[in-house]
Specification:
By secondary structure, the protein is mainly alpha-helical. 46% of the residues lie in helices and 10% in strands. The chain has a two-stranded antiparallel ribbon. It has a two-stranded antiparallel sheet with strand order 3-4. The radius of gyration is 28 Å and the shape is rod-shaped.
């Protein structure tokens, strides 16, 4: 009788072991899926953080009001708050951010003001960055592309490495020309804002 109970206990332990091993395999697969989701979500958070750092509000942000004339960009006492350019400043198409009671100008505000000075002119990302004293051309290019998505700017890609932007004033204009490409070589950039 004692031998039968030991055999039964052994069989029962083997079944429990198989169940637990199966459960371990399922949990490892689930853990792999969780790790993949964490990696994916981390990439999304990084991308969104870069956009926020670049100065763009999210699509569900409330409509923006006209910025106050006396509030400069934090750390930049020379940055004007009002726009004298055509367009619809304060409508949300530029990117002014409200933080508490203070409104801050964003890079998008500065880009809109710069390219809006001459709506017929086509700009390269590096020329905009140079006029705005921005060292990170890639982040300026991101700003320009987001403004294209928001219909503030128009983008023309002539080739893989030749992309041009201009202010969208609703007027059909010719694309960038060779003469214009030569004029933006750094010597004749538009007046900085």
């Amino acid at each position: 009788m004692g031998l039968g109970l030991q055999r039964e206990a052994l069989i029962d332990s083997k079944r429990k072991l198989e169940v637990l091993q199966g459960r371990e395999v399922r949990l490892q697969k689930e853990l792999g899926h969780v790790k993949a989701q964490i990696t994916s979500l981390t990439q999304v958070v990084t991308a969104l953080t870069e956009l926020v750092d670049a100065g763009f509000p999210f699509h569900d942000d409330p409509p923006l009001e006209e910025p106050a004339a006396a509030d400069p960009r934090p750390g930049d006492e020379t940055s004007p708050q009002t726009s004298t350019l055509p367009g619809n400043p304060g409508s949300g198409d530029a990117g002014t951010r409200n933080v508490g009671e203070t409104q801050y100008r964003t890079r998008a505000d500065d880009v809109r003001d710069l390219v809006g000075q001459d709506p017929a002119r086509w700009w390269k990302a590096r020329d905009v960055a140079e006029c705005l004293d921005e060292t990170n051309v890639k982040s300026v290019r991101m700003t320009l592309n987001i403004m294209v998505e928001r219909k503030v700017l128009i983008k023309v890609r002539v080739s893989h490495s030749d992309t041009w932007y201009r202010y969208n004033d609703g007027v059909a204009r010719p694309g960038p020309t060779e003469a214009q490409a030569a004029s933006t070589s750094g010597q004749q950039l538009g007046a900085a804002i």
